[in-house]
Amino acid sequence: MDDERDQTGGNDQGVALDDDTRAERLEALQALIDLMRPAVQADGGDLVLVSADVERGIVEVELAGACSSCAISTATLQGGVERILRDRLPWVTEVIGGLDDSMDDLESAALGRGAYVPRL
After folding, report:
1. What percentage of residues in the chain have a pLDDT greater than 70?
2. Domains of the chain
3. C-alpha distance across the termini of the chain, in Å
């Protein structure tokens, strides 16, 4: 890991974090997710924090609602969510994203506006 990342909150794999640091990281992560959610919700979707390993820097998120039928959901995850999390939380090393596919495609599409491409 480079010196700049270490100074801004990065973590060596072998170093355990204390409870206060873990809590601070989880709080900052949830606050950032909550900051991004309204933009996703404006298009009928939602952004959900599934899990976070704050020691290893691995965060798992899920796009739900209209996002499950949206043609640009992958771009939203990679170009938006992942980029923002990694830029603003230096300890984040990996973002795993998925789609909530429990909703029917037509129901999902009815929640959103734009970018819907039916799966045939």
Report:
1. 69
2. 3-110 (3.30.300.130)
3. 45
SS3 string of the chain?
A: CCHHHHHCCCCCCCCCCCHHHHHHHHHHHHHHHHHHHHHHHCCCEEEEEEEEECCCCEEEEEEEEHHHHECCHHHHHHHHHHHHHHHHCCCCCEEEEEECCCCCHHHHHHHCCCCECCCC
Contact predicate 32/89, CB 8 Å: yes
- pLDDT single digits (tens) 31-52: 999 999 998 888 888 899 999 9
Q: Which amino acid is at 88?
A: R
Residue 43 is predicted with a pLDDT of 81
Nearest to residue 70, comparing CAs of 16, 111, 11?
Answer: 111
Question: Which residues are within 8 A (CB) of 30 and not within 5 positions of it... i.e. 6 or more apart?
Answer: 49
- Partners of residue 47 on adjacent β-strands: 63
